[in-house]
Amino acid sequence: MPVGRTGTCRPRRIRTPLICALAAAVTLAGAAQLRADVVTYRLEIVNTWSEDTHPGRFPPKEAHFSWLGGGTHSDRVSFWQEGEVTSPGMTQMAETGVINMLAEEIETEAAAGNAFASLAWRWWFCPASTDFGSCGVATVEFEVDSEFPLVTLATMLGPSPDWFVGVTGLPLREDGRWIPSIEVDLRPYDGGTRSANVWLLFGPTNAPPEPIRLISEESGELVGPASLGTMIFTLISDQAGTAVAEERTNTVPQSFALEQNFPNPANPSTTIRFDLPRSEEVSLVVYNMAGQTVAALLDGVREAGSYSLRWDGRDDSGRELSTGVYLYRLRAGDRVATHKLMLLQ
To answer: 28, 59, 163, 244: which could form a disulfide with 199 (CB 3.0–4.6 Å)?
Structure first.
């Protein structure tokens, strides 16, 4: 089902879920050319919802984005659209914040060949200023297959009767290329199943249910129409490119450390080991001597432990790197360590 195309778009920023011509909305320079079926994207949820963004229209306590659910799929199927009535899974998500039924709907379509996989993160995505026990990390990763390049996600605004934010049928691939980065503006939607206008779950049921609609100033919902944050999708690995095998031990090291690769010189494969004393956002990148990135080996949250990565000496496009000296840099939180390596081809 094609995605609707209305709203205002500008380069690298899209008003959700209606996608204006992506050639104008997304900068494709440097996009990764597809040579494999599956790639990995990092999704960062930036929740800016606050009394400052919504004065007088902000919950008195525990304002949050609830569990985030959805999946990757083809254009043969759609899981929610403005102007359509919610499915049972979307109803459960919008009314309770639980995404189990929505995940099941996507798994059913995956079995029918219309979707790749369901996505389900069962923790709250909270504003930076909050510290609730249910809040989890705001950055996650997921895989996308070239035959199922659309992503649909939704999360309830908590607490609310049936208000939510998300994206529907967002293309991560354009003209045979994976899009390197997309930033989506999150504006609230009314799920159409409940008619309460208070900061509470449930309320009177709409019979029959009303279609999903974008909340506007004229509609009068308490949440208001202003943006509540962004979703930032970033391509972080193309399996057509460099090959990395990652292993981790459960032993928690005492300190942060990056070891010298072995063997060195690499001919062309080599192993890089490092220690993380606590869970952190981690990146491991190989640079040439001009400081240009040639291979992004690791990017994302990693648990505490000792890690071992075996790298095949190829760049992010899958090309063999030339013989020479390179730098590899590990960043974990505010700590950085760098070593040189010699590569022989």
So the answer is: 59
Question: Going by C-beta distance under 8 Å and a sequence separation of 6 or more, which residues neighbour residue 124?
Answer: 64, 65, 66, 67, 132, 134, 135, 136, 158
Residue with tokens 């500008």, as numbered in its chain: 10
Counting the structural domains of the chain, the total is 2
Residue 220: which domain range? 13-238
Q: What is the CATH number of the domain that holds 41?
A: 2.60.40.2130
**pTM for the predicted model, two decimal places:** 0.64
Please tell me the distance from the alpha carbon of residue 318 to that of residue 327, in angstroms, as a whole number.
18
Angle at 336 between CA 332 and CA 341, to 5 degrees: 110
Contact 71, 275 (CB under 8 A): no
DSSP string, 272-309: EEEEESS-EEEEEEEE-TTS-EEEEEEEEEE-SEEEEE
Q: State which of 192, 210, 238 marks the end of a domain.
A: 238
In order of 150, 176, 239, 318, 321, the CA distances from 35 in angstroms are 18, 10, 8, 9, 17
Quick: pLDDT tens for 298-311.
888 888 999 998 89
User: Are 74 and 59 in contact, with CB atoms under 8 Å apart?
Assistant: no
Tokens of 286: 């190989």
The radius of gyration of the chain from alpha carbons, rounded to an integer in Å, stands at 22
**Preceding peptide of 277 cis, ω within 30°:** no
Distance CA(1)–CA(77), nearest Å, equals: 6
pLDDT tens by residue, 7-46: 323 333 444 443 332 322 332 223 333 334 788 899 999 9
Q: Collapse the DSSP code of 91 into the 3-class scheme (helix H, G, I; strand E, B; otherwise coil) and give the result.
A: helix
What does the alpha-carbon distance between residue 295 and residue 297 come to, in Å, rounded to a whole number? Answer: 6
